[in-house]
Each structure stands twice: as C-alpha cells, then as structure tokens.
Amino acid sequence: MTPDISKNIKTVWQEIEKAASHHGVSVPPPKLIAVSKYQSDERITAALTAGHRVFGENRVQEAEEHWSCRREEYPDLELHLIGPLQSNKVARAVALFDVIETLDRPKLARRLKKEMDAQGRFPSLFIQVNTGEEPQKAGCLPNDLADLIHLVRDELNLPLEGLMCIPPVNEDAALHFALLKTLAEKYDIDGLSMGMSNDYAIAALMGATHIRVGTAVFGGRP
Ligand SMILES: *Cc1c(COP(=O)(O)O)cnc(C)c1O
Q: CA-CA distances (angstroms) from residue 199 to 4, 167, 222?
C-alpha cells in the first residue's frame, strides 16, 4: 500500500513548527528535498500528485530512471544529487540535476566546470563537508575547505550555493550542524543542506536552508 505521502509531508512541516515553538524560536522554513532513492514509481507519482516538486537522488543512473521520463510533464521539477559523484558520470549529472550537493574535491570541480561550459547548463553546487572526518565517508575535510571554496568560487567561477553534511551515525548531529553553519558563515555561504528523517527538525532550528528527507516522506526503503 502506498503511504499517505501528502500527509507525511504535512507532518514534516508540523514537526518543524512544533520544535520551533517548543524552543521559542521562529525558523524560516527550509526547502524540503524528498529523497526518492529506492522508492517505487507508485510512491514517486504520489508525491508529485501531492504537489511536491523537489527531489533528491543518490545515484545518477537511478535518478535518470526515475526522472528523465518525468521532466516533460513536470517542468518545475528541481532535482538534487545528494550521493557521491564519480568523475565518469559528471556529464550525465550536469545534464539531469539542478543542484549537485556532493562536490568534494578539486578534480571534480574542474570536471564540472568543463562539462557545464560544454553543455551551457549550470546546476548550482553545494560542497559536501566531512564534518566527522570519517575516513570511509565522502566529503571535503574541514581543513581543505578554504582551498576548495577558493577554487570553485574564485578560480572556476562556479555557482556555489551552499555546504552539505551527513553527520556520523553515532554522534550528536547538532554538533555537526553547528560546525557546518560556522564554516558557512566564515566563508560567506548562504545554503546549508543538513538534516534527514531522524534529525531534520533540529537541523531546521539550527538554520538549515535545505533538509533531505526520505523515509519520513515516502516510508521505508525496500
Ligand atoms: C538517503 C539519504 C537521505 C535521506 O535519508 P532518510 O533517513 O531516509 O531521511 C538524506 N541525505 C542523504 C545524503 C542520503 O543519502
């Protein structure tokens, strides 16, 4: 059975409001990226029918399968790549996505520049920061961030919109959200993509401009 996705989306907003009123703060609503990876066509259609248009995917191939055929019917779609991007998929990623959130290394920045110029298509970019400095995780280390920002913004003139992080599973996410925000302020970057199904309300309270919510919108992934 398809979960009530329209209701789930409303619940996400209510949770944000509830947390905000509990803490006595007013938060500007972040953009809700509904993460559709591994979800069925039926659930994706239900989200579109509910009026949702902003979606996130982890893999280029799966994103093409989910979305290439729907672009025409929904010209106002906004697709975010939130999974690691291999250099050999850059052309396809630039062709499909409106926002690429996982820029994390100089080589990838140069490939994106080349491909964006070639296609005349300029998705906006987030730099993924490995705030927990986890060796197995993608993302730019905080110590390498200044150089990467300089390359992306000043040398290559790419549209850098924000920073993104995925906190380590067993740590307090709030510490990582705080670090990401501090880094964004330090480098004068507006966008903050942080918070998933388990912690989006905290992320919103801490200034997220984008939250990436899969399970809480679509139900569990197979
Ligand atoms: C899968 C994924 C999400 C969504 O996770 P949920 O816990 O289902 O909300 C968000 N961000 C990234 C980077 C992901 O890979």
A: 21, 10, 21
Indicate the pTM of the whole model. Answer: 0.97
**214 Cβ closer than 6 Å to some ligand 1 atom:** yes
How far is 146 from 115, CA to CA, in rounded Å? 23
Q: Is the CB of 40 under 6 A from ligand 1?
A: no
The tokens describing 82, both together, are 């939130």
For residues 63, 68, 69, 70, the Cα torsion angle rounded to the nearest 10 degrees is: 80
Q: How confident is the model at residue 222 (pLDDT cuts 50, 70, 90)?
A: confident
Atom of ligand 1 nearest to the CA of 212: 10
- Return the half-sphere exposure (C-beta side, CA atoms, 13 A cut-off) of residue 164: 27
Q: State both tokens at 46.
A: 């239900």
Q: Angle at which helices 5-22 and 41-49 pack, to 10 degrees?
A: 60
Helix (H) or strand (E) holding 181: helix 173-186
Percent of the chain whose pLDDT exceeds 70: 100
- Measure the CA–CA gap between 179 and 135, rounded to whole angstroms: 18
